[in-house]
Amino acid sequence: MTASNRLPAKTNEVGRRKLTLALIAAAVCVGPLAAWAQTQIYDSKTHTWVNYDKKKARQYYARNNQAPEAFRMQTVTFRTAEPPGTIIIDGNQHFLYLVQPGGQAIRYGIGVGREGFGWAGIVRVGRTAEWPTWTPPVEMVARDPNAAKWAAGMPGGPENPLGARALYLYEGDQDTIYRIHGTAEPWTIGLDVSSGCIRMNNDDIVDLASRIKIGAKVIVLMQGAALYKGV
Amino acid sequence: MAAMTSVALLGACTPPTPPAPESMARTTLQTAPADLQLLCANSAAGVAGPNAKVLPTASRQLPDGTFGVDLDAGGKKFSCVVDNNGTVRSVQPAQSG
Lengths: 231, 97
Known about the structure:
The structure holds two protein chains of two kinds.
Chain A: H1 3-6, H2 9-30, E1 39-43, E2 48-51, H3 54-64, E3 74-77, E4 87-90, E5 95-100, E6 104-109, E7 112-113, E8 119-130, H4 138-143, H5 145-148, E9 165-171, E10 174-181, E11 192-194, E12 198-199, H6 202-211, E13 217-221, E14 226-227
Parallel strand pairs in A: 4-13, 7-11, 8-14, 10-12
Antiparallel strand pairs in A: 1-2, 3-6, 4-5, 5-6, 8-9, 8-13, 9-10
Chain B: H1 2-13, E1 25-27, H2 34-48, E2 54-61, E3 67-73, E4 76-82, E5 88-93
Antiparallel strand pairs in B: 2-3, 3-4, 4-5
């Protein structure tokens, strides 16, 4: 029997209310409540927009062995003054654009930071790596037992959460700790799932890494998220 | 009357035009397209100064079909309106309060 079970009903109610308020305060203090949005995909059979959550995404990937068409690599019209080679990330809509000449961009589907882990800012690609080692940050080791066992580093490979390539994002000469990388969970493209990194299908990150130059500007748009202010 | 009823029934049975395949995903948060947000940022850079880093922080569709974009230029806030053709209609310092 727990301590709370021994309390009279009224005291229990007050305790619950206090706990609820404390949880709300904690949630507000942990970080800005990003404008949370539900991903939806169009169902051609029912002619309706349906919510696309983790469960639906797993089912879709199991059936089709790829993400929905909108999240697959494609060339789109993109009107911008940014020079070709610039990477623009629309975190809210789960797209990464690589600016091309002639008012076009290559668009890839991405997975982004879950609620409270999103961010926005202007950074650059500091370096890249093939099949990188993944070393979880200290905060992740503290909160995630799966990450804790790789505190000393997980070697690159198909099970490594950084996938086939990683683009390390820097502000000036400072590593932001954020990366654009591949994934061992390709069904998560289109969802808010990460701890702030931008994840892509392995084929897509290999393609992107082959096209970009070190130093490329990266603009991360994420409505409701905190602006990146350094590590 | 019969003709009108038939047309109404036909309309009821005709499925809505589906979006293009590349547009078959969205989120319930209806932000401005990323390229339009950045056109606003580019225009604001001209106002905020040549070295200003201008970042769109929020956006929304306005009742007349244009998009409102909020911008941050190193702490200075700007509001921008851009239309679907990519024409920036206005950029001005954001009103506080």
